[in-house]
Amino acid sequence: MPLLSVKNLAVRFETHHGTVRAVDGISFDMEEGETLGLVGESGSGKSVTNLALLGLIPSPPGVMSGQVHFDGQEISALSEPELRKVRGNRISMIFQDPMTSLNPLLTIGRQMTEVLELHKGKSHSEAMRLAAVGLGEVGLSEPESRLAQYPHELSGGMRQRVMIAMGLLCEPRLLLADEPTTALDVTIQAQILELMAEVQRRHGTAIILVTHDLGVVAGTADRVAVMYAGRIVEEGPTHQLFKNPHHPYTQGLLSSVPRLDSDTSQKMSSIPGTPPDLAEMPPGCAFAPRCPNVQAECKSERPELLPSGVPGRSNACPLYASADSASADSAEARP
Amino acid sequence: MSTADPKRFDLDDATAERLLREAQEHKGISLWQDAGRRLRRNRPSWYAMVFLIGFGLLSFLAPLLPLRSPVRSNLDITLHAPTLDGGDGNYLAALDPDADSALVARQIEKDYWELSSLDHGLISLRRMIFGSWQTGHWLGTDHLGRDLLSRIVWGSRTSILVSLAAALCSLVIGVFYGAFSGLVGGRIDNLMMRTVDILYSIPFIFVVIFLITLIGDYRQVLEEEWGLDREKVFYLVIGAVFWLTMARVVRGQVLSLKHAEFVQAARVMGASTFHILCKHIVPNVLSIVIVYLTLTIPAVMLFEAFLSFLGLGVEPPRVSWGLIAVDGTSAINPLRIHWWVVIFPALAMGCTLLALNVLGDGLRDALDPKMRGKD
Amino acid sequence: MIRFLFRRLMWFVVTMTVVMSVSFFLMKNVKGGPFDTERALEPAIEANIQARYHLDWPLWKQFLHYTGPFNLDERGLGGTQEKVLGGVLSGDFGPSFRYRDFTVNDIIGQALPISALLGVVSMMWALALGVSTGIASALRRGSGVDLALRLAATGGIALPNFVIAGFLIIIFVFMIPLLPVAGWGSIKEMLLPGFCLGLVYAAYLARLTRTGMLEALSQDHIRTAQAKGLSPRTVVLRHALKGGLLPVVSYLGPATAGILTGSLVIERIFFIPGLGSHFVNSASNRDYTLAMGVTILYTVLVYSMNTVVDLAYTLLDPRIDLAEEA
């Protein structure tokens, strides 16, 4: 039984421009202890997916549909008070910018102990002790004195460590990480990613890592799901997907990453065109207007995410799905 | 092409065409258009603006309207309740018994006060259109038998004029002071702002009250040597009280603009200081100035009412809302409740000030760059 | 902290110097002023002033004697028991120009407690009404309650306080005889004046609180708090309230100043024998020392309040460093 099973999750926002389909019917599974990288450009719906899993979509403009099964329970059907027992407890979330995501007016200690007091019924002193242990685990020196400090007294990397520690205090089975390294310096990024990998080893926590940075995903994720315009276009084990991308969007994405050994006399490649307006999606494949291999049927029918013959991989390009082995061969030959 | 050949960055015509087409498809929105759109969508603010424009027009055209004299007192009908009876068996309006065209000029002086030539012209126009018809006491009369309706309409002129003039006065002083301070920066800026801080702690209101009282003693000197009548002194004094906030706000805005990245970008692109001033700094400061102006005017009106309450405001025979409000509140007694003397002036003043505040809020929301694009 | 207070004190001295210089200048040069020899004063007061202000002394000495803090009398006169301290800075405002047997200190001493009580009552009204409606408005944003409260708040700043007082007197004193119209002393008598005076500040506070809370609730860390599973009540009270009320604290300074000035009108309407009434009378009576005394007193009060507010602000927001104040 997979730890997390998402079926047809969709999130739409009613705005005066129209109905924006931020997440347009996605499905995926996750096993215990694995790291799933959710990649895509800005506006692809990856952050909204994370929020939707916890039911944190602001309700008047946003409407969520679909099913989310976690640890044997259908959490998408839970009431709000019941959902609150899951948040921070069995599923935790950490956010992009630790400076704004931590409350500047409360001490670190206060912000950390409140999850323990709430979900585990710990006393204040017991919670403080556990919080100090948690801070030590993520590599902060002098954990006890950190508890009395305020967020602005710490550096960016330290703040993110605090967020990770805070997320892990209740020993959740799943950690949702929303661009955890984007706001940090490159060297600190590496440290944080290493920390997350270690945390996973130690606690066996599954992690959904949302990011637009392919490099981050390549180093840490076991599996990758590529999102475009609110839909998943391809999914598979990281190494395989990077080496041999099946979907034209993934191919375009990977080839637009500049490489040290590329020919500098050639122009840099990019995907022509711009992402679609999520309020006015074209019928058929979302990527069709920009796809180099576009066919007539691509514009009329929306392709489904189907297993592509290679175990563990699926993609949403009908061309690829139908001509597996042949395309696999020609893909090897591509630079 | 070798790696050093600059031509490799050139676009071929087809690509250039394509990029240009794509760019033109996306239409940008300027700050003013965005603000205008947001203001229009903000229903209360829009109505407020319409109301104010309409009211302003009415007030400006007051001499044209067939109203009774706001000054003429008729002790036979003091504190008369509002009535649709025009008198002499007429409904709604009546003929003015004193409207003898030969005596028009003198009558105008008796019925009003010193009026501008434009107003004289409007009154002549009124006589032509309406003859000697005038409205009845639709809103009742005050404790001296004066028609409340016309007092309110004519009072609006004075109140609006005083408030506008004083607000503009404070604007001029505040903007120059603040802009200069912000642009110059450094020690001078520090000193100038410290002065503002000091002035802020002094309860200026007290000084004003004192000054106005004193000015009474010096009236002749002021009028003869400086040509300042009580009204003009009024504007100056009030303006002198209200410029502090404007100066602070403008200086803050200029400071943040000076170091704003887009200003530096413009400089890097070779724009001259004058160009930067006109195209970047002034429009951004303008928006905040407009907002504060809209919010200063009601404050000034209230201040004028406050001064009138203390007997230091506009002098009779001129009318202002403050004066009418004061008359109204002093007519309160437990025996007979003359509600119209309090309610109608309060309604007029309240609606106008409410509209100004709502408009000011709407303008602030519309012009706030943080809100740009979001809704 | 010490440095902050020291700096504040320094600027206070500068402010006071400015105020006293201006008042001294006015008194000496204004037509009909206290030192104008053309002015006919009652002989008793005249004698008082002569003795007090030594009009024959050089100007600078007169000024220093007026400001204090030292009573320069003892230098000149020998043999009389004069106090060491004198002048404004030691709290001595001089004799009143109108009331023969009273010094300004006497008058202020009588009237200040009354005005102070009125001010405190008004401020309490303003805070209780304003902050609670502001929070309610923010939590129910866009609802009918919110709109109604916002309209009420905007209305509260649209009418002069004497008009509102007039309305309320009609309703609560004449139509429903619930409260007395004048006098001061019992709680019943304090309610209406306090309410009228505090109302406009309640309106401002309501607006500020609403904006502050909305701003606080839109911060990222609120989303984090929700993601931790905290109840909405905890999120608002523990995470949003502190930040949302910061603008309110800053406003307390101007609000105090406003209440002090607003009292001029309210005291008149309700016949309260407070400092405000005295000031207004002093202006028309040309009682300069009293007027200046009250003005200086109010300056001190407002300045102190602003300093207290700034201190409180730093206690609430740990990010603010007093030493950084320019």
Structure description:
The complex is a heterotrimer of chains A (335), B (375) and C (326). By secondary structure, chain A is α/β, with parallel strands linked by helices. Helix content of chain A is 36%, strand content 22%. Chain A has 14 helices and 12 strands. In chain A, 44% of the residues are buried. Mean pLDDT of chain A is 85; it is low at 323-335. Chain B has 375 residues and is an all-alpha fold. Chain B has 14 helices and 4 strands. The longest helix of chain B has 37 residues, at 148-184. The model of chain B is unreliable at 371-375 (pLDDT under 50). Chain C is mainly alpha-helical and 326 residues long. Chain C has 12 helices and no strands. In chain C, helix 7 (161-175) packs across helix 8.
Topology of helices and strands:
The complex is a heterotrimer of chains A (335), B (375) and C (326).
Chain A lengths: L3 E12 L2 E13 L4 E5 L6 H8 L8 E9 L2 E2 L5 H7 L4 E4 L3 H4 L6 H12 L4 H14 L5 H5 L8 H13 L5 E5 L7 H18 L2 E6 L2 H7 L2 E6 L2 E7 H6 L4 H8 L40 H5 L5 E2 L6 E2 L2 H5 L1 H10 L2
Parallel strand pairs in A: 3-8, 3-9, 6-7, 7-8
Antiparallel strand pairs in A: 1-2, 1-4, 4-5, 9-10, 10-12, 11-12
Helix pairs in contact in A: 4-5, 5-7, 7-8
Chain B lengths: L12 H13 L5 H11 L1 H18 L24 E3 L2 E2 L1 E3 L8 H8 L5 H14 L2 E3 L12 H37 L1 H16 L2 H14 L1 H8 L3 H29 L2 H8 L4 H37 L11 H10 L8 H29 L8
Antiparallel strand pairs in B: 1-2, 3-4
Chain C lengths: L1 H28 L13 H11 L5 H9 L5 H4 L27 H36 L4 H13 L4 H15 L11 H31 L2 H8 L4 H38 L5 H11 L2 H29 L10
Helix pairs in contact in C: 1-12, 5-6, 5-8, 5-10, 5-12, 6-8, 7-8, 8-10, 9-10, 10-11, 10-12, 11-12
